[in-house]
Specification:
By secondary structure, this protein is α/β, with parallel strands linked by helices. The protein folds into two domains: about 375 residues, Alpha/Beta hydrolase fold, catalytic domain (Rossmann fold, 3-Layer(aba) Sandwich); about 60 residues. It has an eleven-stranded mixed sheet with strand order 1-3-4-8-5-9-10-11-14-13-12, with helices on both faces. Strands 2-7-6 form a three-stranded antiparallel sheet. The two termini are about 40 Å apart.
């Protein structure tokens, strides 16, 4: 999600019982649950394969909460089956939103038009159909994760990445078969910074470690990401104007606000630059009158509050092996405040490093006005990467899923970009089957994500020309 919302998460120093194994999920009939009732429970078949806590520091009780779902129908031995890691945005929002509202094997929604009644049902577009899927509540202090003290909450992407590396390393050690499985780190929105940060950190740190301790990172995927904020904030006016949402006078007013955010960023006045970006988005919201900037086609905002209602139930916390004393909320103001000065800092250079050393997928929902297509293409074309010229001139191909138009794919070498039609900021929520087809095609390098002979030839030429 975008900016952290509801009340601050209480930071607790907890004594944790780490790591519990519970049955694997299966597709079964949905089980209606009534939110106000004490007997609100998840169906047993919906529970994670493993869940619990992963330590981020040997000297502290701080820990990242995780929920892992094994592949439902893997096509390879589990020791070779890819592992996807999902990170939510914010900064300060829980990956349980991704789990129970977007791409997990079970999703929560309301029963008919009764907002007081919730149902948890199988998600046919889950990302763990062919792959293992690991949700991490990141940074510490978010969702069910634990920050032993407010001072330990990360204030920059280096600390975020350090904690994630420790947590992922601890997770891989839970099962000997995890070690050989290729890892793909994915996420959306503010994870447009988390994902490059952990990817960059992993490649740098792997170089210092013996092979037995390295993480097997194969690629990263960023959905509707905030990655190069100064470039992206400068696109809102032109995007809204040519979408017919504002007029010329409003466009000029919005551009002035954008220039202020860019100017403060260039001066390194980070906190003021973040506040200036917030003013740009608030101005755009007021001008357009939209239900949400996350999707200009929606008449009501996304119902992510359903996840909060579900996960506040004590029985649900116990079933998920989460610390019961934590008052779950979808976003943490405390974490958002800690990362306030980080918001306008670019991680584009990290993406440039990753595209040289692994595979990168950038995907955007077509109707997202915050971190959508125009916003992403603006910074991508400024990348310093030897293949950027070929990528920008590569054909943008029509993409179909089950015969229906799903969007567009542009690919060259290790970089792929996807535009998902009929989707806003939360692509897997809006287009579950398209998002599933996208992630599976990209990871497995099939269909439009397969390397063409021309790609291979040009990539070989680039390697030969490199010093």
């Amino acid at each position: 999600m975008g900016s952290a919302a509801p009340p601050p998460l209480k930071l607790l120093l907890l004594s944790l019982s780490f790591l519990a194994c519970i049955p694997a999920p299966s597709a079964a009939a949905s089980r209606p649950v009534s939110s106000p009732a004490a007997e609100l429970l998840l169906p047993e078949e919906s529970l994670p394969t493993k869940s619990g806590y992963l330590p981020v520091s040997p000297a502290s009780g701080s820990a990242i909460y995780y929920a892992f779902y094994e592949a439902q129908r893997p096509t390879t031995p589990l020791s070779q089956t890819p592992l996807l890691i999902w990170l939510q945005g914010g900064p300060g929002c829980s990956s349980m939103i991704g789990n129970f509202y977007e791409l997990g094997p079970w999703r929560v929604s309301s029963v008919g038009h009764n907002a007081e009644r919730l149902v948890v049902e199988p998600n046919p577009g889950s990302w763990n159909r062919l792959f293992g899927l690991l949700f991490l509540d990141n940074p510490i202090g978010v969702g069910f994760s634990v920050a032993a003290s407010p001072e330990e909450i990360p204030k920059d992407q280096f600390t975020v990445a350090k904690h994630l590396f420790a947590a992922i390393t601890a997770f891989v050690k839970l099962d000997g078969a995890f070690k050989s499985r290729p890892i793909y780190v994915t996420g959306e929105s503010y994870a447009g910074k988390y994902v490059p940060a952990i990817g960059y950190y992993t490649f740098k740190w792997n170089a210092e470690l013996p092979p037995s301790q390295r993480l097997n990172l194969a690629g990263v995927a960023i959905g509707n990401g905030l990655t190069d904020p100064a470039t992206q904030v400068a696109t809102h006016a032109v995007n809204a104007y040519f979408s017919g949402l504002i007029n010329e006078r409003q466009k000029s007013e919005l551009e002035k606000a954008q220039w202020e955010a860019v100017k403060l960023t260039k001066m390194g006045n980070w906190s003021q630059a973040t506040d200036a970006r917030t003013r740009v988005l608030r101005l755009l919201q007021n001008m357009t009158g939209l239900a949400t900037l996350y999707d200009f086609t929606r008449k009501v905002p996304y119902n992510t509050q359903w996840v909060t209602r579900l996960l506040q139930e004590p029985e649900v916390k116990r079933a998920l092996k989460a610390e019961e004393s934590i008052a779950f909320d979808e976003c943490s103001d405390a974490v958002g405040a800690a990362l306030h000065e980080d918001v306008m800092k670019s991680v584009k250079y990290m993406v440039e490093h990753l595209v040289e050393n692994s595979r990168v997928l950038l995907y955007q929902g077509h109707s997202d006005l915050r971190d959508g297509v125009v916003s992403t293409e603006a910074w991508v074309k400024t990348m310093e990467w030897k293949g950027i010229g070929e990528f920008l001139s590569a054909e943008r191909k029509v993409w179909r899923v089950n015969g229906a138009l799903a969007g567009y794919v542009q690919k060259w070498g290790s970089l792929s970009q996807v535009v998902v039609l009929g989707a806003g900021h939360l692509v897997p929520t809006d287009q579950p089957m398209s998002s599933q087809a996208m992630i599976e095609g990209w990871v497995l390098e099939k269909g439009l994500f397969a390397d063409s002979k021309e790609d291979e030839r040009l990539a070989m030429e680039n390697r030969l020309e490199s010093p």
